[in-house]
Amino acid sequence: MKVLIVDDDALIRDGLKILIELEEDFEVTGTASNGQEAFEKCQKKRPDLVLMDIRMPTMDGVLGTKLIKQHFNNIKVVILTTFKDDNYIKEAIKSGAEGYILKNQPADSIIESLRAVSKGNIVLEKEVASALSTMLKDEKKPRLKLDISTRELEILELISEGLSNKEIAERIYLSEGTIRNYTTGLLEKLKLRDRTQLAIFYLKNL
């Protein structure tokens, strides 16, 4: 997996590069110091995953994520930051980030988070997940009437728990291809863009 590291601190960029390149299944394809530079590197390097800080000069990580996702929806973005600010969390996830983790985690935990996202999971560090859940509950609107089946609702709930298609298939004894078809159908039916939006939709409305 090709990874682009984005952080305005050169020491952190270099440290993450060394850490990630110790893993045989990862390759650091480049580094950037802000969101704008990250977008430009994505145009040239086409990484599989961007590891993005939040607070940076010129363009922050939230805007950088939004820009990357608008043009390269297949590139996954994981926010790695020291800031557990509620607004940053909400805006980063709304912008399409597949993960939001904190820099105080052990090195092996960061690597496992990247692997999980590469497999289609949504990764939120425990404190971040708790903050996001509280925010979404506070924003909840009256329960919507939706034209979705019991099976679709079950799959939507499992997506909101961060499970991949393979894990959902194993949980409810269906093929991975069937789960993929259900997921595609839910995205079309609910007019949403990706699994992260499906998870947020479930937490906020159901």
Automatic annotation (TrEMBL):
SMART domains (UniProt xref): HTH_LUXR, REC
One GO molecular-function entry: DNA binding
Coiled-coil regions, chain positions: none
Protein name as it appears in the record: Two component LuxR family transcriptional regulator
Response regulatory domain location: 2-118
Domain HTH luxR-type residues, every copy: 141-206
GO biological process: phosphorelay signal transduction system; regulation of DNA-templated transcription
GO CC annotations, alphabetized: cytoplasm
Keywords: DNA-binding, Phosphoprotein, Transcription, Transcription regulation
Localisation per UniProt entry: Cytoplasm
InterPro entries: CheY-like_superfamily, NreC/VraR/RcsB-like_REC, Sig_transdc_resp-reg_C-effctor, Sig_transdc_resp-reg_receiver, Tscrpt_reg_LuxR_C, WalR-like
Modified residues (4-aspartylphosphate): D53
